[in-house]
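User: Run a structure prediction on this.
Assistant: Running it now.
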Amino acid sequence: MSTAQFASMTGFGRGRATAEDVSFVVEAKSVNHKNLDVQLRLDRSVAAVEPALLALVRDRVPRGRVDLTVTVSDAGSASGLPVGALRQTVDELARAFAHHDQVTPSVQLGDLVAALGSFEPPPPPLTPAREAALLDAATAAVEELCAFRAREGTRVLEVIMAHHAAARDQVGRLRARTRLGPAEKRARLTERLAAVDVALPPERLAQEVALIADRVDVDEELDRLALHLDHFLAITEGDQPGRKLSFLCQELLREANTVASKVQDAAAAHLVVDLKVTIERLREQVQNIA
């Protein structure tokens, strides 16, 4: 199986590009989600690129919640005090005070600091070259995110295969145990009859044992469990197996619960509990698969 097919829904990626003194940093992170949910956090100066960014993520990521954050840094913007803006602010204050004879105009250093703090330079325009750089950064971030998800998927697959092998072994041991049931029931019934000094004709004893065996028979359920586990392996070889595997884990648990309701001896019951725990572990791991 290729790791591109079996990918985790958890990942992170970062991309960076620069054009015309403007730097773009794009970060992409993803977590579990039933479907694909893309959330963009963009600077207002690049809002026009939102459709292209959405298409980029949707083309490469099948499932999960993806948060894409774009940070814009203008290296060519003026540094130091915005003298022109401060001068304009002081002039406007002076004109305002001129209309109020009862107020003595006084501009303190704190007033200038407040004006400086409220000053925001206009964002750089999104030229074609800058837009191309932004998309390059976003592409790099999403590709790194996908590579991360693929590597994580490989590790998750190893855990899943270990749980799958354990489930197979538990089904086999449960089958061997339940096949001993009728013989043990016959021996126990014979002992009880002997204890109360009651003798049953052999055919009647066989009939009673057959009735008991029919009530506790779980061969069909165990056969379906084995088939589901075979199908589980086949699904892992396909594209985007997450949803199918989640559904199959539900079916495995349903069959295990049916077996639990039928078995009557403690040894078999303990094996069923172990099997249900393993299936639950499988389900937890499968929930992180795209």
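Residues 94 and 100 are 10 Å apart (CA to CA).
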